Amino acid sequence: MTSFDDRERAFEAKYARDQEMTFRITARRNRLLGQWAAVQMELTPAEADAYAKAVVQADFEESGDEDVIRKLVGDLTAAGIETDEGIVRRALEERLIEARRQLMEAQ
């Protein structure tokens, strides 16, 4: 039984690490996405930092990426920037790759 218990604990630990890494990648991606949108809206550095944090917070509203995409499309449109959901989704995918790269380099 000991080897089974050890395997179970190892799988649980790996699952917890994987979930933490997924959360960190998503949070980093959302921050990078917020910074990208802030550049589009020509925000000051202080405003850009606050906006990036707001984008990270927006992801906690519901499961999935739709809340973040909705926020960015709405904010960019309100700022007079011509955008659509496709543009934001492409930016999201590009920032996901960058977030993974940054976190892998940090380890």
TrEMBL record:
Gene3D superfamilies: Domain of unknown function DUF1476. Pfam families: ATPaseInh_sub_z. InterPro entries: ATPase_inh_sub_z, ATPase_inh_sub_z_sf. This is DUF1476 domain-containing protein. The lineage of its organism: Bacteria, Pseudomonadati, Pseudomonadota, Alphaproteobacteria, Sphingomonadales.
